[in-house]
Amino acid sequence: MSKLLESQFLARRKHIMQLATLAAGFVEELGRLSANSDDYVPSIVTLLIDQARRARASDIHLVPTESALVMQWRIDGVLHSIAGFDRDLAPRVVARLKVISGLLTYRTDVPQEGRVSREFSRTEVRITTFPTLHGEKAAIRLFAENHQLQTLTQLGLPEEVESELRSHLAATAGVIMLTGPSGSGKTTTAYACLRDIIADSVGTRCIMSLEDPVEVAVDGATQSQVRPSAGFDLATGLRSLMRQDPDVIFVGEIRDPATAEAAFQAALTGHLVLTTFHAGNSAEAITRLLEMQIEPYLIRSGLRTVICQRLLRRICENCHGLAGDFLLVQTKSPDSERTADKFASPPAHRIACAVCGSTGYHGRLVLAEMLNPNSPEVAKAILNRLDAPEVARLAAASGMQTLSQRAANAVTNGETTYEEVLRVLGAINVPVKTQP
Predict the structure, then answer these.
(1) Which helix (H) or strand (E) holds 209?
(2) Full residue range of the structural domain in which residue 193 is found
(3) Which of 236, 260, 356, 411 is the most exposed place for a label (fewest CB within 10 A)?
């Protein structure tokens, strides 16, 4: 069996074992509720949000099927099926979510989104609904507590990346681009950057944002949410916002050529622009801008840095991954000097871990690569419109530590596992631990 296939097989086996541990606590609490009580459904909604937050879930999915309403929690980036509710209960649960977030309960045929009122939750909770074949699906986003992930220091970025990023945040012009796929922590990093700018400037810089939607309120920043249906889109709003005399502009996400061009024009006219962008790595961000018909000279003149990041689950410090982990080790055959890679199962005394829910992981670590567009070789590559692999090669040759290199170091240092790297980045070369 290939290394990748074996890892996928073991991951599925491990995932099944994790579900029982994660679901047990919720099912026990659910059993204590009285189905005959008038507040049964409100109590279910309160319980599932509280329990999910206690389990460190970032999202709750309520998925209607032909026979049940299935609840899933996303913990450290991975979905876990936790429980199922009676099919007849599904519309009542979704209706309750609509009530507490100010949505229209009688509209079940269109997507809706809203925020949970402070009357029902002390922390930020967003709810979206979506019509499906078997009824409405609801997704609940649970944002971090107010004291978590506030500043760059708390994010755990690589030391050299954090230091360089701080120097760029002190600049007066240019574009700082945070890239990565969905769920890689780009927006969290962006908000941390805004808070650091506000703290360092002590109110001497005007900070404004255009977002779709505004995810977290940041004290000290003037935040606006675009409304495309009313003609207030990102590109239009950005051009108008520049007349508000801002020093720092946060653009929630660059999605189209018009927004990209407006952002670079703002940077060239003396504004520091912080934005997020979907791209697989920092080099791909450059080539995507070129594909959007942004002129190479604009990128070359306006772009300060590109940071691409990923989140990997961290091995649980309480059980050291023994609760549910499979490690890649290198073994030496007794009758040969050759070595072979294989996956080693956890010891027979597999332990139940209350800290990680027997997943073997607790929390996540940030991998980040920072591309410097001003290095001579990379600058020349941008002007010559070279493709992403060549830009990546030149950036690495200029000293950029890539995501793959940081992932390999994280596995070697025992911070995460090869299996987790496969899940997030795919197969890479990792110096594996040796066992006799």
Answers:
(1) strand 207-211
(2) 152-315+349-434
(3) 236
Q: Characterise 199 by phi-psi region: left (phi > 0), alpha (psi -120 to 50), beta (else).
A: alpha
Name the pairing type of β-strands 248-251 and 272-277. Answer: parallel
Domain count of the fold of the chain: 2
Per-residue pLDDT of the chain (436 residues; tens, 9 = 90+): 455 545 544 454 454 445 556 677 788 788 888 888 889 999 999 999 999 998 889 999 999 999 999 999 998 888 888 989 999 999 999 999 999 999 999 999 999 999 888 788 877 899 999 999 999 999 999 987 655 657 899 999 999 999 999 999 999 999 999 999 988 999 999 999 999 999 999 889 999 999 988 888 899 999 999 988 888 999 999 999 999 999 999 999 999 999 999 999 999 999 999 999 999 999 999 999 999 999 999 999 999 999 999 999 999 888 877 765 444 444 444 444 444 444 444 444 456 677 887 778 888 999 999 999 999 999 999 999 999 999 999 999 999 999 999 999 999 999 999 889 998 988 776 554 444 3
Is the bond preceding 213 in cis, omega lying within 30 degrees of 0?
yes
Angle CA 124–126–130, to nearest 5: 175
Domain boundary among 142, 175, 207: 142
